[in-house]
Amino acid sequence: MSAAFGPAATALAAAPPAATSSVVVNTDNRSLGLRNVVNARDAGGYQTTDGRTVRTGLVFRTGDLSKAGDADLAELTSLNVRAVHDLRTSYEQQLLGVDKVPAGATEYHDDVIGQAPPQVMASTLSAGTDLYRAFITAPGASEAFANVLRDIAYNPGGVLFHCTAGKDRTGWTAAVLLTILGVDRDTVTYDYLLSNYYRNATDGDMMNGVTKAALDSAFDQANQSYGSFDNYVRDGLKLSADDITALKTKLLA
């Protein structure tokens, strides 16, 4: 089926992936309902393998905020967003525009792939496995992701993180967070694949959507580079036991 453009495109709206038994919050309630910010949603609302639930209203993931309108910013303010982490490169910020930040929030620039090899930078739009493996191996990537996770752990308010489309760098950040908190892999993958639903991307459209193989490649690279996911968190992201405890204390009910 060929892609549709314009008003007719809504007829091809992507269906959400099948929810696992650990999904607590449905797609409508997960959406932040922002008008000019894509893929904007709450990162919580999942049950962990030990029966706890990731709290909602504390962590948010979106596409870039460069076109956020006044109503969007007011909604983020009402959600008590106190920190915005921009995972884009400086070039993307110049090309697409810097963030519009809700009142009272502090903005941080955590460039994930700005120091990656040129071939990785060139693959950003296609968002294939090379890009996802670079989330583990590129200079500066682990530091960028860790900055977000530490802020989530210790910030008393809400934390929002985003890249351009809110699906790749943002998707890996959310996957790491949920995995640390004890959400099972199938549910982590469900959350990741929701980008196809919220971005209305058809299967295989890597410019607008995501694929499970890409996420799997990042987890695989974490295992290859560090021996296990837990080792990646400890030795790659350099999150301490206290950092992990703080994340769980804040986000698990």
From TrEMBL:
InterPro entries: Prot-tyrosine_phosphatase-like, Tyr/Ser_Pase_IphP-type, Tyr_Pase_AS, Tyr_Pase_dom. It comes from the Bacteria. Residues 143-184 form the Tyrosine specific protein phosphatases domain. SUPFAM superfamilies: (Phosphotyrosine protein) phosphatases II. Belongs to the protein-tyrosine phosphatase family. This is Tyrosine-protein phosphatase.
